[in-house]
C-alpha cells in the first residue's frame, strides 16, 4: 500500500474504533502507531511516539489547563453562579421573558470565569429553571434557555476548547481568548433577540401560565453589590490582568484559581473533603485533556507522513468547491459529528486533517478557530448526544421532564448559533479585531 492509502485506511479505522466504543485517545494512539509502522517501520513508530509525548506536553502553557479547571470548579461550589443569576434577575425583572434573558446574561458572566459549558449547565439548571417555572414559564423554554446559553462557557474566555484549538493550530492562547469576546457577546445578543421573538411570536412556547408568583422581594443596592462583587472581582483579576498585559494565560489562571479559593473560603462553602474532591476532579480532567492532546499530535504527524492533508488540500482547493465550499463542508461535518461524540473529541479527530487545508486556503487561523468552537458547541444541543441536554436532565432529577422536551426547547438556540456562525463568516472582524490589536 502507498502511504496515502495507509493514511486513508487509518482515518476509517479510527472511526470504526470510536463507533465500537474504544476510548478516543487509545484509538488515536493505536491507529497512529500502526500507520507509522506500516509507512516506515516499528522502530520509527516507537521513537515518534516517544518524541510526540515529549514535544506535545513539555510546554509551560499546559499549566493553564488545571488552573482554569480548578477555578471553574471552585466558583461552582462557592455559590457565585446563584448570586450572578440573582443580580440579572433583579435587573431584567420588568422585561418580557426577562428571566430568560437574565439566564443568558448570567451564563455569559459566569462563562468568563469558568470556561466549561457543562459547569454552566449544571449550575443554572438548578438555579434558573425552578425560578422560571415558578414564574409561569414552560419547562421546555426554561431548560432550552439554560442549555442554549451554557454553550457560552466554551466561547467566552477563558475557554478549554480555545486552549485545545490553540495548541493544535499552534496559535497564541491569549489571542484566541481575545477572539472569543466579540463572538461571545454577539451570541449572547442573538440569544436575547431569539427570546424576545419567541415571547411575542410564540408565547405558548415561552409561557405556560400567568405569573402567579408575584413580585419578588426587592434586592437593595447594598445586597446587589454584595452579590455582584465576587464575580466582578474575578473578572477584573483574570481578564483585566490577561488583556492588560500584566499576566500571561498561565499566570492569569493561577491568579483566578487563588481568587476563587479565597471567595470559597470566605463564604465557608469549602471544607477539607470538598476541596480534596475538587483537586482530584481537576487532576482527572487535566490528565484526560492532555492525554487526548498527545494522541491527537501523534495522529496529526502520522497523517502528515502519509500525505493525506496535502492531497485533500489539492482536492478541495484546486477542485470546483473552492475555499468557502470546503469551509461549509467542514462546518457541516463538525455539526454532524456533534450529534455523536463530545466536543474535544471532534476537534482532535478533525483538526489534524482540516488545519493544513485551512492554511492552504489562506484563512485567518484565529477566525477559523472561533468558527470551529461555535460549530463544535452546537453539538452540545443536538440529539442524540447533546451533552448539555443530558447534564440538565441529570441535574434536575425530575421524572416528569423528558429528554425530548429539553431538546425541543433548545432548537431555537441551535438556529441562533447558526445565524451567529453566518454573521462571523460574513464579517470576520467580529472574531479578529481584538486579537489583532
Please write out the topology:
Layout: H1 3-19, H2 24-39, H3 42-57, H4 64-77, H5 80-91, H6 98-114, H7 117-134, H8 139-150, H9 160-169, H10 173-201, H11 203-206, H12 221-243, H13 249-266, H14 272-306, H15 308-318, H16 322-338, H17 343-360, H18 365-378, H19 387-396, H20 403-426, H21 429-432
Report on this structure.
The protein is an all-alpha fold and 437 residues long. The protein has one domain (3-432). It has helices spanning 3-19, 24-39, 42-57, 64-77, 80-91, 98-114, 117-134, 139-150, 160-169, 173-201, 203-206, 221-243, 249-266, 272-306, 308-318, 322-338, 343-360, 365-378, 387-396, 403-426, 429-432. Helix 6 runs antiparallel to helix 7 (117-134) and helix 16 packs parallel to helix 18 (365-378).
Short description:
78% of the residues lie in helices and 0% in strands.
Encode the helix/strand succession as letters. Answer: HHHHHHHHHHHHHHHHHHHHH
Please state the average pLDDT score. 82
- Main beta sheet: strand number and arrangement? none
Overall structural class, as computed from helix and strand content, comes to mainly alpha
Helix content range: over 70%
Number of strands: 0
> How much of the sequence is in beta strands?
under 5%
Using only C-alpha atoms, the radius of gyration works out to: 22 Å
End-to-end C-alpha gap: 49 Å
Weakly predicted, low-confidence segments:
none
Number of helices: 21
Number of separate domains: 1
Shape: globular
Amino acid at each position: 500500500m502507498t502511504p496515502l492509502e495507509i493514511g486513508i485506511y487509518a482515518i476509517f479505522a479510527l472511526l470504526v474504533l470510536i463507533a465500537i466504543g474504544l476510548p478516543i485517545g487509545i484509538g488515536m494512539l493505536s491507529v497512529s502507531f500502526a500507520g507509522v509502522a506500516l509507512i516506515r517501520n516499528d522502530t520509527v513508530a516507537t521513537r515518534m511516539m516517544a518524541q510526540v509525548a515529549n514535544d506535545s506536553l513539555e510546554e509551560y502553557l499546559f499549566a493553564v489547563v488545571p488552573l482554569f479547571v480548578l477555578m471553574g470548579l471552585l466558583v461552582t461550589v462557592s455559590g457565585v453562579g446563584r448570586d450572578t443569576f440573582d443580580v440579572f434577575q433583579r435587573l431584567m425583572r420588568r422585561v418580557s421573558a426577562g428571566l430568560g434573558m437574565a439566564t443568558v446574561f448570567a451564563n455569559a458572566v459566569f462563562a468568563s470565569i469558568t470556561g466549561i459549558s457543562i459547569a454552566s449547565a449544571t449550575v443554572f439548571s438548578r438555579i434558573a429553571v425552578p425560578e422560571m417555572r415558578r414564574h409561569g414559564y414552560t419547562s421546555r423554554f426554561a431548560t432550552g434557555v439554560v442549555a442554549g446559553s451554557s454553550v457560552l462557557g466554551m466561547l467566552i474566555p477563558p475557554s478549554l476548547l480555545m486552549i485545545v484549538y490553540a495548541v493544535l493550530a499552534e496559535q497564541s492562547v491569549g489571542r484566541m481568548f481575545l477572539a472569543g469576546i466579540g463572538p461571545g457577546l454577539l451570541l449572547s445578543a442573538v440569544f436575547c433577540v431569539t427570546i424576545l421573538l419567541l415571547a411575542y411570536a410564540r408565547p405558548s412556547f415561552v409561557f405556560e401560565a400567568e405569573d402567579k408568583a408575584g413580585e419578588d422581594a426587592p434586592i437593595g443596592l447594598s445586597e446587589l453589590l454584595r452579590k455582584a462583587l465576587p464575580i466582578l472581582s474575578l473578572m477584573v483579576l483574570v481578564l483585566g490582568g490577561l488583556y492588560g498585559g500584566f499576566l500571561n494565560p498561565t499566570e492569569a489562571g493561577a491568579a483566578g484559581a487563588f481568587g476563587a479559593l479565597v471567595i470559597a473560603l470566605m463564604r465557608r462553602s469549602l471544607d477539607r473533603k470538598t476541596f480534596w474532591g475538587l483537586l482530584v476532579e481537576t487532576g482527572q480532567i487535566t490528565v484526560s485533556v492532555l492525554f487526548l492532546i498527545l494522541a491527537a499530535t501523534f495522529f496529526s504527524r502520522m497523517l502528515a507522513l502519509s500525505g493525506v492533508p496535502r492531497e485533500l488540500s489539492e482536492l478541495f482547493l484546486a477542485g470546483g468547491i473552492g475555499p468557502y465550499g470546503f469551509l461549509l463542508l467542514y462546518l457541516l461535518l463538525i455539526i454532524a459529528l456533534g450529534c455523536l461524540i463530545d466536543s474535544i473529541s471532534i476537534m482532535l479527530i478533525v483538526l489534524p486533517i482540516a488545519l493544513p487545508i485551512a492554511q492552504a486556503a489562506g484563512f485567518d487561523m484565529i477566525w477559523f478557530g472561533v468558527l470551529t468552537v461555535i460549530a463544535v458547541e452546537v453539538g452540545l444541543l443536538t440529539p442524540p448526544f447533546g451533552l448539555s441536554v443530558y447534564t440538565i436532565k441529570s441535574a434536575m432529577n425530575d421524572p416528569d421532564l423528558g429528554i425530548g422536551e429539553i431538546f425541543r426547547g433548545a432548537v431555537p438556540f441551535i438556529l441562533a448559533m447558526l445565524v451567529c456562525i453566518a454573521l462571523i463568516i460574513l464579517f470576520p472582524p467580529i472574531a479578529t479585531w481584538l486579537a489583532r490589536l
